[in-house]
Amino acid sequence: MRVVIAPDKFKGTLTAREAADAMARAVRERWPDAVVAVIPMADGGDGTLDALGGANRRDTVTGPLGRPVEARWRLDGGFAVIESAAASGLVLAGGAEGNDPWDATSRGVGELVARAIDAGAARIVVGMGGSAMTDGGRGAIEALGDLAPFAPGRVVVLTDTTVAFDDAARVFAPQKGADAALVERLTARLHADAAEWLARFGADVRGIPRTGAAGGLSGALFAAGAELVDGAAYVADVLGLDAAVAAADLVLTGEGAFDATSRAGKGPGHVLALAESHGVPVRVVAGIVSDEARGPGVVAVAEVVGIHRALGHPADAVRIATEAALADMPT
């Protein structure tokens, strides 16, 4: 058996690597001689830095609520990797309950990009996802100053959504603590931001797919010359996932919560699409599974072992759920 194991993170419990290792234990118990390729996935959100080599630098930058935070990032020769969540993440703001959706800023991300440029990085990958702000990227652009606009090809923005700049507040701000009235105010501010980016950079971000990620940060960076790409596809390409899947007899993927959005830009959705394109059987092991995402080969960890064990002993729970997912396959 040749098995590719490519899950995303189980947010709050396991990294993508930890989840993949738990799945691998179940595979090796069933097929001791299996050739197992462990390829932890990401889609531009949390975990992208680890998927692309891990951090080798730490810098103190402005956090989402203005307080200093220590952000991890990577610089390898002329190649840099930055996660917006590391500098401006919702977790750093104390979640939706502790966040200030109006004042939360992307400034720290801009400071990291500036550090990468000053260090001589010729190509800078910036992952969106897990952010606290809906500031239209204003904080980042202010931090970059004269370093924006960018040279063509220098900055690549990874997103897991196709939401446009104008819709960023409506779609994402409620998850960051904004009520309906504040969503309207944030949307009005985004319109003003879009007008300013058009005047300054000559790029109209309104209606452009992927410009609404990270509260419009992706749109501001796009206006300043960055390239917007599908985060999962980019990470998969760097990791050589397509070739690995094409040569496999079975593919395993998963994430913390598998739902209808998982096939629309998320890491597991991309893995599923690759497996299906090559005609390779695939199993999904997820912490929880929404009703609309249920189907053959999709297993919810919480339903196999119970929610308390899933949260209390997540690695062991994923191993057991993976065994259940493989139960219908010949030994």
Question: How are the SSEs ordered, and which strands pair?
Answer:
Blueprint: E1 2-5, H1 16-30, E2 35-38, H2 48-51, E3 57-62, E4 68-76, E5 79-83, H3 84-88, H4 95-98, H5 107-118, E6 123-127, H6 138-144, E7 155-159, H7 168-172, H8 180-201, H9 217-223, E8 227-230, H10 231-239, H11 241-246, E9 250-253, E10 257-258, H12 267-277, E11 282-286, E12 288-289, E13 298-300, H13 301-305, H14 307-312, H15 314-325
Parallel strand pairs: 1-2, 1-9, 5-6, 6-7, 7-8, 9-11, 10-12, 11-13
Antiparallel strand pairs: 3-4, 4-5
Mind explaining what this structure looks like?
- With 331 residues, the chain is of the alpha/beta class.
- It has 2 domains: 2-39 and 240-325, Glycerate kinase, domain 1 (Rossmann fold, 3-Layer(aba) Sandwich), CATH 3.40.50.10350; 48-232, Glycerate kinase, domain 2.
- Helix content is 39%, strand content 18%.
- The protein is built from 15 helices and 13 strands.
- It has helices at 16-30, 48-51, 84-88, 95-98, 107-118, 138-144, 168-172, 180-201, 217-223, 231-239, 241-246, 267-277, 301-305, 307-312, 314-325, and strands spanning 2-5, 35-38, 57-62, 68-76, 79-83, 123-127, 155-159, 227-230, 250-253, 257-258, 282-286, 288-289, 298-300.
- The strands form 3 sheets. A 6-stranded mixed sheet has the order 3-4-5-6-7-8. It has a 5-stranded parallel sheet with strand order 2-1-9-11-13, with helices on both faces. A two-stranded parallel ribbon has the order 10-12.
- It is globular and about 65 Å long.
- The termini are close together.
